[in-house]
Specification:
Elements: E1 6-13, H1 17-28, E2 33-36, H2 63-77, E3 80-82, E4 86-90, E5 96-100, E6 105-113, E7 117-119, H3 125-129, E8 135-136, H4 139-142, E9 150-154, H5 158-167, E10 173-177, H6 187-195, E11 199-202, E12 205-212, E13 216-223, E14 229-232, E15 236-239, E16 243-245, E17 275-277, H7 289-311
Parallel strand pairs: 1-2, 1-6, 2-3, 6-17, 8-15, 9-10, 9-15, 10-11
Antiparallel strand pairs: 4-5, 5-6, 7-16, 12-13, 13-14
Length: 312
């Protein structure tokens, strides 16, 4: 006898703030709901040591603790949380079929994609050593902790420029380190950088080594033409070389933009009816937990309306 596929009204793929919020709203809306979160549910917030800007917490909350609370809340409300990844998705017809990492197939009447986006890193061992200890991929998340300090931003595009300008609200000095002799950032942003006395533009340099003991105390940068090494005595280094959205699962199945982000309308709907996207996988700009949670709510409400409409 052939084993029947497990069926759900709504399947959520991804376990960051967008995914868990979507699952909570979906199950509270009366839908049988599955969430596929991989072996370590929590998304990018698992890498964040302290969060001070998520509403409802008087004291800073560790990212992993916040995600653990969301997972427990989801389970208590009736969400079936699978610590499995989705390795294949058949979105060509409904019910949609999802294949998990253990080979099992699940069916869903609607799917919410909340697979997130990962900050791009330089790939240096010392960079990873000080990740969360002075090295960060999110200036808006961690900039506050460097009030009165000197910091460095690595990158040359709009994100790097915006991060550098944002950090001037807290830091006494911001070094913007770029490997070329001119920035890729927009003219407007470059003018703002040049006009800000806290910003020092460091062209033609790349990071050679991140230094410190328990925490970051400096960065050695090397001139790409002369090989000369310069030490920046900074306690914070922000890597701003872009993000990579986790959209390999739906490549060729949903409309994506040039950077690989899922294209949605203002209601989180994708190019396939019944499939929605929430959080950083569709967010090219904000990359904030509270924004991701908000889009997760929207996606769940839209998915609930979709399956209700299909039942009539």
């Amino acid at each position: 006898m052939t084993e029947q596929n497990e069926k759900f009204d709504i399947a959520v793929i991804g376990s960051g703030p967008a995914g868990f919020t979507a699952a909570i709203y979906a199950v509270r809306g009366g839908a049988s709901t599955a969430l596929f979160g991989g072996m370590a549910p929590g998304g990018q917030l698992l890498l964040t040591t302290e969060i001070e800007n998520y509403p409802g917490f008087v004291d800073p909350v560790v990212g992993a603790d916040l995600m653990q609370r969301m997972m427990k809340q989801s389970s208590r409300l009736g969400v079936k949380v699978f610590q499995e990844s989705v390795t294949a998705a058949d979105l060509a017809q409904r019910p949609f079929k999802l294949t998990s990492s253990n080979g099992k197939i699940y069916e869903a009447r609607a799917v919410i994609l909340a697979t997130g986006a990962q900050a791009r890193w330089l790939g240096m061992p010392s960079e990873q050593k000080y990740s969360g200890k002075g090295v960060s991929g999110c200036a808006t998340c961690d900039g506050f902790f460097f009030r009165g300090k000197e910091v460095a931003v690595i990158g040359g595009g709009d994100t790097a420029a915006e991060d550098a300008l944002f950090l001037t609200k807290f830091a006494t000095k911001v070094f913007l380190v770029h490997r070329r002799d001119n920035l890729r950032a927009s003219f407007r942003l470059q003018e703002k950088l040049k006009a800000n006395p806290k910003v020092e533009l460091v062209y033609d340099h790349v990071p050679q080594e991140f230094l410190g003991e328990a925490k970051l105390t400096g960065v050695d940068i090397k001139h790409v033409k002369t090989g000369e090494v310069r030490r920046l005595n900074v306690t914070g280094a922000f890597i701003a070389i872009g993000h990579t959205p986790a959209t390999q699962l739906v490549k060729g199945k949903l409309n994506l933009d040039a950077e690989g982000y899922i294209i949605t309308d203002e209601h989180t709907a994708t190019s396939v009816p019944g499939v929605y996207a929430a959080g950083d996988v569709a967010d090219t700009r904000y990359k904030q937990a509270v924004v991701a949670a908000g889009t997760g709510c929207k996606a769940a409400l839209e998915a609930l309306a979709f399956i209700e409409g299909c039942s009539k």
